[in-house]
User: Fold this.
Amino acid sequence: MIRIRKTGRVTAVVLAAGAVTALAGAPAQAATTGSAGWTADLSTVDTDDVNVAAAGGALTLADAAWHRTARVFAGSEGSLTTAEHTLGAPANRVSAELSADTPKGTSIDVDVRGRTGANDWTEWTPAGSTLKSAVGSVQVRISLHSTTDGVRPTVKNVALSADNAPQVNALDATTALTYKVYGTREGLIGGTTANGHVITSRDHFVALPSGKGLSGKGSGTYTVRVCRTDGSKCEYAPVWDVGPWNEQDDYWNPAATRTKFKDLPQGQPEAYAAYYNGYNGGKSGLGYKVANPAGIDLADGVFWDGLGMSDNGNVNVTYLWTGTGPTGVVSTAGDPMNVRASASTTAAIKGLAANYAKVNIECYTLGDTVTGKFGTSNIWDRIGPGHYVSDTYLQTGSDEPVAPLC
Assistant:
């Protein structure tokens, strides 16, 4: 995220990584293959957006005292995600020039993600940083923050440009990353998550301490598989909130691309280091004393129904978007679907796959005939080790199998 924390009026602030580096006295990276610039549409606010309002061509916070339930503080927050923009030529970096009013205690973040396939996106990446790969189209997320009730920042213009910079992203693995972290129950029924979802009883989503993997409301672009450490129960659930403890700790990423706490081992949450090792004086990046080592929050339905947990504890988390290969989006009437041990409706239940979860399809097999959201079929997809779901509940973009035969 590019963070603007200045008092008063900010105009024509160049947010390209090279410009920031140059100001710090280090040489800027050379860029090649520039692309025509464009301006973010600040006037269209829709269901992808949270607590923002457009007026007179500018963007500001709709409610200057609203914030998601998991964050207890004065002030407010909100975000706007632009429509997808097609680039004139493939590029791996999008830079932003921001014109805004930022009173004391307010800040603005600009993040970008690029489409890498029909249903695939890079992580949200700070404007001016390199994306995972060159992309042909992008979206921009503009986030507004205030630490004082009633005080709002105002974004007047966001000028964007795309180019190619030396590639530094180290996430090239074909198999999705998995780490053991401490999981806690989120609860907070009736509250609102970072993407604007209102939490229901026995809900099915998770929270990670970074907005890089935050899915939009009603979307599972960024989904995790979270399992008991013995592998007996798992759930595939979308990332709909940011937390616990931190908001800029994408600990699953290598140091080269991790936003903060780059001196910690890959896969180790800052909260773990603070709780056990006194890292950062035992405090989170937000300045709170860390009371547990959590690296993921689990909604009640994931905690109780998907995993059968009765207390907080370690879980194995696979960050599915860090892998490659064919995918499908779980589409049900709303309730999660059972994940079976084989391609049979009577096979043992290994866990759940939440509605909207985007799962990786390893291979397919033929089994019991099932009638589901997308017709009737005997095709079953393996979405994890010993995990099978009927293809009739996965939106894959094809009536035929999208992965090889198991």
Summary: The CA atoms of residues 11 and 99 lie 4 Å apart. The domain at 2-164 is CATH 2.60.120 (Jelly Rolls).
